[in-house]
Amino acid sequence: MNKFSIIIALMLFCIVGKSKQSYEILYTKQINNSDNIHLIDTNGKTKQITNNPRKDSSPMLSPDGNFIVFTSERVGWWKIWLLDIKKKEYLQLTNSGSAEYGPSWSLDGSKIVFVSSRTGNSEIFLMNRDGSGFINLTNDGRSDTMPFWGKDNRIYYSSEVNGTYQIMRMKPDGSNKEVLTKGSGDKLMPQLSNDGKRILYYGNENGNMELYIINLDNQEQVRLTNHPLIDMRGRWSPDDKKIVFERGNKGNNHHIYIMDSNGNNVTKLTSSGYNYAASFVSKNVSLF
Question: What is the pLDDT of residue 14?
């Protein structure tokens, strides 16, 4: 093979390698009213992570790839649980008499932010990874939900402001709360992009639940989806190039999809069961 042929072969290898780039995604699959955590990649490979007769849901991988925090009904109403992946050990983190859900990791993986109504209404709480040190971060008497710990070390969440859910953020100690959006329509589950420039969320500003992006520098809003079914719970890939989300009718037709971060190339990943609450596996980590 001459020098020119080698160069062409290397170029083709790079192109094919890029086209086959795959992402791993954790999600919840319901089969016969039993919800468990599953794993799928964008090449169609699958793996079941949990196998419990009660419901396991909403998995989030720790930054180091060693733990999965999730919501479960293993001992009754929704509680926060932790799976040590290497040891295959489970630890119940919360145990109040109310529903607790929506966990999200701190940047160093030492803390978890989540939602609890243990005080009478939905508030954002913080705890250590072992379930100790509970702190009510919002404590404002209104409904606060769907927290996400951004790469800027701010906690983004949805809060009911004058009857409508708006996007807010605060420091990890609960200080410096800011309302980032206004206007009609609920804006739910805000997710800061890894580059810190955009917020992904889903909302009903145009009548149906769709996915949107807000650019933080100029507050420009971009609508990503426009579909008769419900599009919700989107999350960024580690490189911000992709968005995973769920689309369905909240009944027997609910699946995980992936698309480019500009809304193009929408691809359906699941084909059976009721599927929801997807999140990407951390960069340079594989759970297969």
Answer: 47
In a domain, 253, yes or no: yes
Euclidean distance between the first and the last CA atom of the chain, given in angstroms as a whole number:
37
Tokens encoding 235: 């999350």
Tell which residue, 22, 34, 37, 33, has the closest CA to residue 276. 37
DSSP secondary-structure letter at 44? Answer: S
For residue 181, give the amino acid letter: T
Give the total number of structural domains in the chain.
1
Please report, for the domain that includes residue 213, its CATH number: 2.120.10.30
The residue-averaged pLDDT of 38-55 equals: 96
Residue with tokens 């084909």: 271
CA-CA-CA-CA torsion sign (194, 199, 203, 206): negative
| C-beta separation of 132 from 112 below 8 A | no
Containing structural domain, residue 102: 23-280
CA–CA separation, 38 and 28 (whole Å) = 6
CA 60 to CA 82: how far, in whole Å? 10
**Residue 6 included in any domain:** no
pTM score above 0.85 = yes
In a domain, 204, yes or no: yes
Spatial CB neighbours of 237, under 8 Å, sequence gap ≥ 6: 23, 243, 244, 261, 280
Residues 6+ apart with CB under 8 A from 269: 25, 40, 42, 44, 244, 255, 256, 257, 258
